[in-house]
Fold:
Amino acid sequence: MSSSPDLPEADSEAQLDTFPKLLLNHARVRGDKIAMREKDLGIWQAWTWREVLDEVRAMACGLAALGFQRGDKLAIIGDNRPRLYMGMTAAQCLGGVPVPLYQDSIAQEMKFVLDNADVHYALAEDQEQVDKLLELREEDSGIRHILFDDPRGMRHYDFPFLSSIEKAQAIGREYDKANPGFFEESANRVTGADIAIMLYTSGTTGNPKGVVLTNDNVVITARNGIIRENLTDREEVLAYLPMAWVGDNLFSYAQSLVAGFTVNCPESGATVLTDLREIGPTYYFAPPRIYENMLTQVMIRMEDASKIKQRMFHYFMGLAQRVGTLILDGKPVTTSEKLIYKLGDFLVYGPLRNVLGMGRIRLAYTAGEAIGPEIFDFYRSLGINIKQLYGQTEGMVFVCVQPDGEVYADTVGTPAIDVEVKIDENGEVLYRGPGVFHSYYKEPEATSKTKTEDGWVFTGDAGYFAENGHLKIIDRAKDVGKLNDGTMFAPKYIENKLKFFSFVKEVVAFGDQRDYTAIFINIDLEAVGNWAERRNIAYSGYTDLAGQDVVYDLVQECVDKVNEDLSHDPRLGNSQIRRYLILHKELDADDGELTRTRKVRRNFIAERYQELVDALYSDQSECHVETQVKFEDGRTGMLAADVKIRDAKQFTPVAKAS
Structure:
């Protein structure tokens, strides 16, 4: 490895305003501390901060030798890998801009981003991602050079524009020797106002937009989050969410480079839970679906346990639900409750936290969608300090965060440090602060529609401040509508209430300018399949299981419970679900029904399944549907089914608020 003789002395926070400067400082101040780990072939490999700097230095000089210049874009495509993160920093050290892409995107989805961002250089994880880039390069995508991390399967790939990271680094070390001082000069030339990264939105209503974020946007926001939560360089995180998602960029990249804590990359998506248990992170982020899936696994396991263990589990969990969150928040409980809770911690809560990989968690976040109160309280009752936050790519995640001791299942917290939040006359949430994005790339009109001249960002979300000063989000502002009787219709609110049940995976609600609310449901194949197998109910696959009457009976209980809850809300009591069906196929991003971040594309689904929507608003009890589906190998086929439609139980609403 090359030496780093010109590392600066420890600098003040004001001077450490870019990722290149932060990396140089960590190598100087905590050079021997572990910065990154990766599990490879079952063994954890580690890099210190000094070794990371050496890798980044060689990679940056290698890119420079290949023609990469200030302002150039570097596409990053693959799972969470140390060298991909190092590639992001290498590009930033040259004044370039990393552009992460979702690793499960097909080639044509990647094409729009690569073309729109004017990408000429790409860093790919493996053969799968290289093949996508080669396909696009044949279509003249503008890619000049591709670097790859994992060489497996690529022995016979012989292209002058394709090389391994190791080869590029070898070239870079020679370039570094021939150009002494180049790396330090380039790294120190980058300023806080320079572009740090470009992240693309999920594109729920059209093509994705490139969100341009400066070093100031990212570094200041990351630092404010660290200050608010008292994070230190001793934290451990597991980087497993897509690198193209703003949350991973903040928690696994930016905050690590600001605070100096350790990032751990799992071996694969299939080993995340195992790797989570081995690492035992202290700081953790997951969207609600991850927490929901883990809870589903716990409940499935409990069905396999002995009767004694089941009784013990339910007894202590009942106690935890009563006093666990009070103890976590430092609120008073009786001495006997404290003692019994400690016993429960020894027998149930502690072992369960360890099984979940959360034995050392000091802070856990969830965001992106509303999390069910029961799920939220379950984790907090175990002593896990899980909190909700609210943010956007355009605000570098942190807009609102729940303070310690003020954690509520139905709010997203108070404004983050240096962030202002207000509600306009239409009920839309606006904010401004240090994380507010620079612009949408090549879209000045869209930028001006989203961000005012004085820095206020229109979120597109409808919400209000509760009496406790916390922000509540109701739904997307554009999605909030009205039934024909004038009742507010908040589809995501209804969808999320149903998704709180372990048997329900996805929901799509309809009702705006209609007489009543009707929904599509996707069952959770694993949870419902396990339930069916225990009752000796035979099924051949998702479509067969979804159409069975006993499964409709199971889902009916969930729908009726949601309707009962809605009946107690003065604003939404008349928006109870009147009719529903269980969709014959799972909603899939490859079929265009979900974004790559698994957000439902409601309008697309409504158009694609128009005959099913029409049937929900008729007196039909069944509807035949034929749907084209895309298989994992790229082939397409047709899926036909007779989808049943059921009526849901209605409850008398409480009186409307005056």
In short: Residues 1-9 have pLDDT under 50 and may be disordered.
